[in-house]
Amino acid sequence: MDTRAPTAPELLADLAAAVGAEQLSTGDDDRLRHGTDESWHDPAPPDAVVYPGSTEDVVAVVRACAAHRTPLIPFGAGSSLEGHVAALHGGVCIDMTRMNRILRVSVEDMDATVEAGVTRLQLEAKLRPEGVFYPVDPGADATIGGMIATGASGTTTVRYGGTRENVLALRAVTADGRVITTGTRARKSSAGYDLTHLLIGSEGTLGVVTEATLRLRPTPEAMSAAVCAFPTLDAAVDCVIAVSQYGIAVARIELLDEASMDAVERRFELGYAIAPTLFLEFHGSDAEVREQAAAVGELAEEHGSAGFTWTTDESERRRLWDARHRAYEAGLALRAGARIFTADACVPISRLAETIKLTRRDIDEAGILAPILGHVGDGNFHVMFVLEPGDEEGLEVVKRLNDRLVERAIAAEGTCTGEHGVGYGKSGYLVAERGREAVDAMRAVKAALDPEGLLNPGKVLPDP
User: What is the pLDDT of residues 359-391, one digit of tens each?
Assistant: First the structure.
């Protein structure tokens, strides 16, 4: 396949004609920014960046790139963690951030339609006065299109589900420049193949998502946040498992190990103990929130918690979750100029304690600074390996630790990535997790929808 770089004046002229010269950039700084995400991978800049303003613009860009057989890489906020935006074969980056209109909100039907460049916080600000919210919360102010591309989830998944459970329909542009709509606003359908869920998590390799219809939820009557510290990491995880087994409908249940709490306290001075800690949130009526908090408080005490504190104060609740969402920032602050390699795995909750314990042992034996935290209510946890600038030897140690973590998660019938996506950073694990036959089926889907292999090449599927 010819994936020549789009340095030919003919392609640049076609792109300028498609979207306007002011929406086309070939500057070095702009190209570098669009080939860089939050991961440990080296930047891989595209050869040009385009900024479409409509689905029609996207169609024109896709058709121009197809005519010149040039790779096309979709870009949202650049907050991805597995090299998703890297232009591994050169090509054109299609930055979706100017497509940021909220097209429709229906409180009556509890849904909204937005363009792909709308960000999570932008949508939240629009919905809050309406008494509804979109429940997928990955922490970063990602674009909705980026969240769809990676199948994002986050702190509230344990109660409301992730992206796959909260998207009703998509509008997307295929590799040959056709526009497809993948679903309806109906809450269920048995009509045809489920193209919506095929595109969710496909990381821009099967089509460019331009619009999404999202499921909304009513803002709870009452919300409270709770914090409880434990003497050991095992005790904290065992408490999470007990909460799950008792069927207590927590809205969030997050684990921060001792190293994570140390980083967060250094950065945000919350005033909590430096110990393995659970952050929780409860949603419902005032009575339900109190009942949930009381039930979890009892379980925490049974598992050795030194104290269970909870509050319905809105400012305190927001302060707590702001600190949790900015734990990555807190990790970076542990070392000047630090570089963070963020690992992500998800296992059945019955295997969570064992998996985290063995991962912590590996980290400590290697002498690496690496806080562990995660959305443990659904078995998902992260490791933030904090590396000194230029520490290539340490990076190789961390890669081996990451390999062991992934192998352990897959052996536990879990996954190599609970929410970060595959990108190219984890494509090498896909066969071990899904089997060669399943990966071959994925290749067949890719070949059918993108026969020239021009949409975000090198991502998701491992090299044959």
Answer: 999 999 999 999 999 999 999 999 999 999 889
